[in-house]
Amino acid sequence: MFHKVENEKDFKAFKRTWRKVCKKQKWHNDAYSPVGVKYNLTQSMSSRFPFRKRDKTIGTIEFIPYFPKNPYSSVEGPDRYSFSTLPAIQKNQGRVWEIDKLCLATEYQRKGYFENFFFVFEDHINTYQPKFYIALMEKKFYRMMRMMFGLAIEGKKEFIGQANSLIAVIFDVEKLMYDTKKVETIKKMAGIKGRASNEGMGKKQY
Description:
Strand order of the largest sheet: 1-2-3-4-5-7-6
Strand content: 25-35%
Number of domains: 1
Number of strands: 7
Low-confidence stretches: 195-206
Helix content: 25-40%
Oligomer: single chain
CATH superfamily: Gcn5-related N-acetyltransferase (GNAT)
CATH class: Alpha Beta
Shape: globular
Largest sheet: 7 strands, mixed
């Protein structure tokens, strides 16, 4: 279903998938942060050899530890959004992460695969204990995140460009995780959609 990028092979798959989507969507391809935590969303593919599994990367996401003057920041800057001015971000700066390079390959969009990103978020949340995620997010992904996470996702400002619109987003992780009923509902729905649309996809135990 997903795995953390931990070797050169994984990183090549990450870059290949992200670049392909960037080119198609005419997005700017930001530099890769050396301290970013990257994940590949994957699908198990059939193989000529029955006991050999082959995973195809169908989506990517990167989490970057946030600090305002980070040269690899994709959210903070003169032409971006001043998250650093928000009191909540100032108070919790050590527990803030940027969301970057969130994409799903075109051929897998609108087929129930996006919900599998929940398990990526869950893994990162359990490992790094963030308080907030922040992002400049393409509008359609922002809408999907709102549908998935509800009021924990807040859009602060819209930036309208020639090719697409970006939403400055703040995601209150603790607000979501304290709502245990909401979390269980999301996990149930993600699991149902995953089984319905990802026939044969490898599963990760939690």
